[in-house]
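User: Please predict the structure of the protein below. I'd like the answer in structure-token form so I can feed it into my own downstream comparison script.

Assistant: Understood. Taking the following sequence of 312 residues as input:
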Amino acid sequence: MDVTSDLFRGVRARGSLFGSSTLSPPWSLHFVDGAPLTLCTVLTGAGWIVPEGRPPERLGAHDTIVVRGPTTFTFVDEPDSAAEPIVCGEDCATPEQGGTRHRLGWHDPGEGGDDDSGATTLVVGAYPVRGEISRRLMDALPVLLRVDAGDTGDPVLDHLASEVARDEPGQQVVLDRLLDWMLVCTLRTWLDQRSHPPAWWTAQKDPVVGQALRLLHTEPAAPWTVGELARRTGVSRSTLAKRFADLLGEPPLTYLTRWRMTLAADLLVEQKSSTVAHVARAVGYTDPFAFSVAFKRLRGTNPSEFRRMAEA
């Protein structure tokens, strides 16, 4: 397991809202959900995304943007479109309402006339983001990020265009996985293009620190020492400690403690029947008291109180 894979764990299309709309001008769709993450891709044609409080962004075929909530946005044929905005949220779910059909591909053969080659097809996936694990990913993202056509997501979009044009058993599963794939491709490309990407992104590509991070994320409950981590990565303790601190700004075991407490925070919420002692063992602590002390030091509250506040 690597850092990025772990951070994406709580960002999955399962349970997401999905819509595909084929539009002829003029149009204006106002997406009001303010979902934690919303991915918008134009499969054919072109249009303009107008995020709340930001300048319009033109999207052509295979261009993609990701909007971070709670920002809302509008998709229009032109920035000064004369179309009356149609509010799209959880109730905007049928072609008759002019919006998107959530959780199903929408394709009505023949709708819009015999020739819809000039129409614009928009795909929107709104992602729930669950838990503390994905917070580091969300914190690294701007309100709006853009990836232009011609990158690694293009083959995914070809599959997506094919899938939304049919209505077959198992379609939702396929769409979920394609949306996951598209989001990962988009964010990886965007992170690679940054002049100052997050430290955790850069560190993964270092041959020493990247290997150490993979070990810590694959076996977070193991009884790690700096010496054992250095042995497994094939370098000296001093080399590992220096390179780790240079790239991530903290020693390896400090990083490990923070990661364990992040895992524990999600386990406390997701596994309501688990005791604090069970959660402690799951993240590498044989002593529940030592775990509670570490958790409170980093989270400002003890595990039991954290769970009560999350449930409330």
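That's the full token string. The radius of gyration is 23 Å.
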